[in-house]
Amino acid sequence: MPRRKLPTGEQVRELRSKLHDDVERGGLPVAETVRRMREAMGLTQQRFGEVFKLTERQVWELENGKANPTTETLTRLGKPFGFRPGFVLLPRA
């Protein structure tokens, strides 16, 4: 398997900034948010799991919308990005 190329410092800042903007606008699913957080850190699913005390399978399930994460897990994942779990008001139809 080819090695994953780590993003440059500038790329990390750009990915994190775009993620923050998208989260702030609302409507970003947890699965996509977790995947983009991992990519912004330049980590494989395996390494991301090691960092956040998750199995590779748990990371895959989170990124594919198959998991039912606890508030504790979401808090742990969001902390480095300044995110915390909470309710989001959806726009009226």
- Overall morphology: globular
Chain-averaged pLDDT? 90
Alpha carbon gyration radius: 14 Å
Order of SSEs, N→C?
HHHHH
Provide the fold topology.
Elements: H1 9-25, H2 30-41, H3 45-51, H4 56-63, H5 71-78
Folded structure, characterized:
The protein is an all-alpha fold and 93 residues long. It has five helices and no strands. The longest helix has 17 residues. The protein is globular, with a radius of gyration of 14 Å.
Key descriptive features of the protein:
mainly alpha, 93 residues, 5 helices, single chain
Brief summary:
The protein is an all-alpha fold and 93 residues long. The chain has helices at residues 9-25, 30-41, 45-51, 56-63, 71-78.
